[in-house]
Amino acid sequence: MLSKNMSTALNRHLNTELYSAHLYLSMSSYASSIGLKGAASWFMVQYQEEMVHFMKFYTYLNSQGEHVSLGPLDAPPGEFKSLLDMYEGTLKHEMFITRCINELTELAVTEKDHATQIFLQWFVTEQIEEEENDREIIGKLKLVGDNGYGLLMIDSELGARVFTPPATGAVA
Ligand code: FEO
């Protein structure tokens, strides 16, 4: 059982995860349009992961007897200055998501909602990894600057990322 407050907050965040998916889908398309196929693939994997995150909230809300309310979403940006700009935008967005997850966790602690605390634990850990990956890529991009060969090397590395679906096929 969830409190009204908790249910509303989780539902709001479910929509934020869906926005994240749209943001990375937009970045994937832009990267593809400027010939960075590796980055396009990386952002497509990121999009797929965000859909898994979205579905985790969806499944959790439903399992608690709540219904999901899909709100209108802001359109994500469609153009970017550079690959570095995309990854800096990604890190900024993920830091925002981390703050959201922390706030949800604080609410669950305040309400002594142990089930939701356990549910959110996965996201707390996930956000560490998300931010770490982005920082690593940003570091490499800053290192190569405008060097075309360096950028192509990084693009090739980014293309190696693969989407790993949730182990059991379940999303909760
Ligand atoms: Fe769902 Fe990238 O946080």
Topology:
Elements: H1 4-33, H2 37-63, H3 83-110, H4 114-144, H5 148-158
Helix pairs in contact: 1-2, 1-3, 2-5, 3-4, 4-5
The structure holds MU-OXO-diiron.
Give a quick precis of the structure:
By secondary structure, this protein is an all-alpha fold.
Keywords:
single chain, 172 residues, mainly alpha, Ferritin, 74% helix, binds MU-OXO-diiron
Overview of the structural elements:
The chain is mostly helical. It has a single domain (4-158), classed as Ferritin, core subunit, four-helix bundle (Ferritin). Helix content is 74%, strand content 0%. It has five helices and no strands. The chain has helices spanning 4-33, 37-63, 83-110, 114-144, 148-158. MU-OXO-diiron is lined by residues 17, 20, 50, 53, 94, 97, 130.
CATH level-4 homologous superfamily: Ferritin, core subunit, four-helix bundle
Q: Percent helix among the residues?
A: over 70%
Give the total of beta strands: 0
Q: What's the CATH architecture? A: Up-down Bundle
- Low-pLDDT regions: none
- SSE string, helix = H, strand = E? HHHHH
